[in-house]
Amino acid sequence: xNPDPTPRRPGPAHAAAAALLAATLLAxxxxxxxxxxxxxxxxxxxxxxxxxxxxxxxxxxxLRPGMTREQVVAVLxxxxxxxxxxxxxxxxxxxxxxxxxxxxxxxxxxxxxGERFVRAELPxxxxxxxxxxxxxxxxxxxxxxxxxxxxxxxxxxxxxxxPAVAALEPQGPGRAFPPLEPRP
Length: 184
Known about the structure:
The chain is an alpha+beta fold. It has a domain at 49-135: Beta-lactamase Inhibitory Protein, Chain:B, domain 1, CATH 3.30.1450. The protein has helices at 12-27, 57-61, 69-76, 128-135, 150-155, 165-168; strands at residues 49-52, 81-82, 89-97, 104-113, 116-121. Strands 1, 2, 3, 4 and 5 form a five-stranded antiparallel beta sheet that branches.
């Protein structure tokens, strides 16, 4: 049995440990910049958020005045915003936040006169290739160079140099092969 019935109170070491544990747990809930790390070791997971329609330069170049609403939908997709109060205006808004890539936001406005496309308000749009490169957080593969320059060939020892091209050509008469199809 414990002869002292009074409960023990935590000391300063316990309070410091509890504060450190609480700070560590709350750090995962905060929204630090992508380069921030918890305790210098861990990067908290951030969910990828993609909203709206991607409109690329190639898609915008397909728009022509006089197109029907259905044709515009075939080119750009369904609009994110189509208000009954602004029946002649469609808004295509696109945002993406992806870990390891810069956040992006674009807003394209398409105007109609009745059922016919009139004009579009377009920001600087990326090409499809530029868009994929902008959201990719995988570095591009480095393609190795497979040939030596003339300077590099000159620096090689004579024994390591490749033979001249003329030496690789066949010597003597060429080979005669039988025909692939029987002759009549």
